[in-house]
Design brief:
It contains 16 helices and six strands. It is α+β, with helices and mostly antiparallel strands.
């Protein structure tokens, strides 16, 4: 039943459709091709000049500015992409555009013919009421925008090569502009990597540090002269050696002093036990003594008694008298001691001991004096060593300040040399941007391109023709099937009958 109410549609016949609208489509294609040919004939020819720059690793990328290295710093590895992007920004900067415009003039960049006026200039009478939509406020700004539009900068993928191109109606102008861009870019690349005023700054700092270094050296020399110092390490080593030698000599002297003192004490004790004089000769019973004379007298008296006793009686006065004399002589002789002659001399042992004692005492005095002298010298040497140690701290401080002054002077001298080299490089215009390819000068225009333009024009013309045909296409009425015609006739009869009876017509199902 549904097939009775939905009409069947056949697919569009392309050949019949094209043949049906052949006139419109042909006219549209002809007009599109004509417009394309007109554009190719009348369009302004654009010429393109291109140069390639090699961004090699140079002083700008591997060294820091001298003002950045005056203190502690950490070297950071910068990728090459950032350097390439920085050069791209430099090439596309407004300062670059203004320098080129100043070189060639705004009219040359805008490629205006002498005496010609733009539409904005023709509408200049509306500038007073701010109704000029094409008003040119500044010809220089307009030239800057045109320059940015015509400038092309591309960087090779994973490459250090930059391509710089410029489009213009005159190939010579495009060549000259690209050449000027390369020159300005190299100069600006040198300039932006330099710090203005660094040379004068480091020169003044170096002069101040030179004066400070001279003052520190003078102070150190005066201190050494005042304290008699030359090479502190050598002098201290010599002083330590002297102290060691004095200590060794003092130990030996004290040991010798102890030994000699003990020897002197022993010799004194031995000397006290030795007599100074000894008996050298002793004679007993000498004939010429008084006892010997008495003995001779007694002997004579005894002989005389014998003679008297022989002639006289015992009681005779001569005998009694002689016997009395003999008894008295015997008594006297008994009382008289025997005379002994003794001779004494100097004791040689005592004398030798005394001489040895005197020598040892003199030696003891000398050793004592030597010990005292060594004590004094050791104390003086120790004081000198203390002075050297005290001077060492002061010298260390002064030398530390001197080393610091020298290091600062050296560092600022090196930075001054770096700044001088940078100035010389800037003066000589030496940059790490090398011209890999000189600006081209080709007489072949880059736009419009005939084949791509014709292809695009043809495609657009065909699309326009098809679009126009589709817009104007009206599908033809097709005959209805037999069943549908009968149903339609029956519905018409029912509708007319209801109309005559005044009944509303039924709504056909959808």
């Amino acid at each position: 039943m549904e097939s009775l109410y939905q009409p069947t549609q056949s697919p569009l016949n392309v050949g019949r459709f094209v043949w049906q609208h052949k006139g419109k489509m042909t006219a549209t294609l002809v007009i599109g091709v004509a417009l394309t040919l007109s554009y190719l004939s009348l369009a302004t020819r654009q010429y393109r000049s291109e140069a390639k720059l090699l961004v090699r690793i140079g002083r700008e990328s591997v060294t820091l500015d001298p003002t950045a290295t005056t203190g502690q710093f950490v070297a950071m590895a910068e990728p090459r992409d950032s350097e390439l992007h920085a050069i791209e920004e430099l090439l596309a900067s407004r300062a670059m555009a203004e320098k080129v415009i100043d070189r060639f003039g705004p009219e040359a960049i805008l490629e205006k013919r002498p005496g010609s006026k733009s539409l904005g200039q023709r509408l200049a009478f509306l500038d007073g009421v701010n109704l000029n939509p094409l008003r040119v406020y500044s010809l220089r700004d307009k030239a800057v925008k045109a320059f940015a539009h015509k400038l092309g900068i591309t960087a090779g993928k994973k490459s250090n090569v930059l391509s710089v191109s410029f489009k213009a109606e005159d190939p010579q102008l495009a060549h000259d502009v690209v050449e000027e861009i390369v020159t300005i870019a190299r100069n600006e690349h040198v300039r932006v990597h330099r710090t203005n005023g660094s040379g004068a700054f480091f020169e003044s700092q170096r002069e101040q540090l030179a004066q400070e270094l001279t003052r520190q050296e003078q102070k150190l020399r005066e201190y050494k002269d005042a304290h008699g110092l030359a090479v502190l390490t050598t002098q201290r080593d010599a002083q330590v050696g002297l102290i060691s030698s004095l200590q060794a000599d003092l130990l030996r002297a004290k040991a010798e002093q102890s030994a000699v003192s003990a020897e002197v004490e022993l010799r004194r004790q031995q000397l006290r036990n030795q007599p100074a004089m000894v008996v050298t000769e002793q004679t007993t019973g000498q004939p010429q003594t008084a006892r010997q004379t008495l003995r001779e007298k007694l002997y004579e008296l005894e002989v005389k008694e014998q003679e008297l006793a022989a002639r006289l009686k015992d009681n005779a006065p001569q005998v009694v008298n002689i016997r009395t004399q003999i008894a008295e002589a015997r008594r006297i002789m008994g009382e008289e001691q025997v005379n002994t002659e003794t001779k004494k001399g100097i004791n040689q042992t005592h004398q030798a001991a005394e001489l040895a004692l005197q020598e040892r005492e003199a030696q003891l005095v000398a050793i004592t004096a030597r010990t005292q002298s060594l004590d004094g010298k050791l104390a003086a040497a120790t004081d000198d060593l203390k002075k050297l140690n005290a001077a060492e701290m002061e010298l260390a401080r002064m030398e530390r300040e001197l080393d610091l002054a020298r290091a600062n002077y050296k560092k600022y001298s090196e930075n001054l040399e770096q700044a001088r080299i940078d100035q010389e490089l800037e003066a000589a215009k030496i940059s790490s941007l090398n011209l890999m390819q000189a600006p081209t000068l080709s007489p072949t225009p880059t736009s419009p391109q005939p084949l791509p333009t014709l292809a695009v024009g043809g495609v657009l013309s065909v699309m326009a023709a098809l679009g126009l045909a589709l817009l104007n296409h009206q599908p033809a009425a097709r005959p209805m099937p037999r069943v549908r015609r009968a149903s339609a006739r029956r519905r018409e009869d029912d509708s007319s009958a209801r109309g005559r009876r005044g009944e509303p017509a039924p709504v056909a199902p959808r």
